[in-house]
Every structure is written in C-alpha cells, then in structure tokens.
Amino acid sequence: MASRLKYYAAIGICLIVITSLLASFGDIGKAGNRLIEARKKLSQAQAEKQVLWKQKAEADRPEYFERIARDRLGMAKPGETVIILPESLKQTDAKLAAKEEPNWQKWLKVFF
Question: Comparing C-alpha atoms, which of 84, 89, 61, 57 is closest to residue 71?
C-alpha cells in the first residue's frame, strides 16, 4: 500500500513538473515573438533616424534656406523679379500635362 502511494505521488509530481515545463516553453515562445517584434521596431526606428538625419543635413545647407525663402516667402535676390502666377493658370498647366498623349498614339492618328 505504501509503495502504491509513493508510485502515485511520483506520477503526480512528474505530471506537475511536465505541465510546468510546457507552460515555460510557451512563455519562451511568446518572449521570442516579442523579441522579433522589438527588433523590427528597432530597425524601423533606425531607418527613420537615418531619414531624419539626411533631412537635417539638407536643412543645414545654405541652398535649402535660399529655396525656402524663394518658394515659401516669395523673396528674391537683388535684381530678380518675383512673379506670382494665379491658381487658375497653375491648374491649366497641370491639366495640359495630364492630357498629353504618348507619341505612339500621335503617330497612330497621323497614319490612320
């Protein structure tokens, strides 16, 4: 009777250890997935950092300030004249560019 009790106790302990190990393996798998996601986020953040550093380097150049002053503020160098086009004229230029046919279609119209 005592040997059976020891046998069942040993089996019970083994089952508890096995379930504990299986739960630990599941936690390890989840931790691995979190690690993969963290590495992806890190690589995305590093790529964004590189883009921002390039933008900063561009913004530090004197040509950038000149372009901003010309485009956004309407400033000009001495001796230059600033011409501001009306919005309607800008829109017609965009429409003309959109309606431009490829050369092969133009040639097709010429011959047929």
Answer: 84
pTM for this model (two decimals): 0.46
CA distance linking residue 108 with residue 105, whole number of Å: 5
Task: Answer yes or no: are the C-beta atoms of 74 and 82 closer than 8 Å.
Answer: yes
Contacts of 74 (CB under 8 A, 6+ apart): 82, 84
pLDDT (tens digit per residue) in 49-93: 999 999 999 988 988 888 888 888 878 888 888 777 777 766 665
The domain segmentation of the chain, as residue ranges, is 2-85
- Cα angle 65, 68, 74 (rounded to 5 degrees) comes to 125
Backbone Cα Rg of the chain: 36
